[in-house]
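Throughout this review, each integer encodes one residue's backbone shape. One record appears below.

===
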Amino acid sequence: MEKVKVFFDREGNTLTVWFDDPSKEFVCEEADNDVVLMKDRRGRVIGFERLNYLSAKQRHDALPIPIEVQMA
């Protein structure tokens, strides 16, 4: 893994995180309420998207939005 890419779409209210190249995406699978996993051809998870990321109040508040990242 080279870099983790994090995208916040304020209008769509989604947070997307990629662990690998997004162009390798082959299939998406709903994992849980409001979480979608993006997988490559081998079925490896290469990213995820969190739908409805912020509440209405949080969306109204000013950016930046803090995101905590822990590396294992």
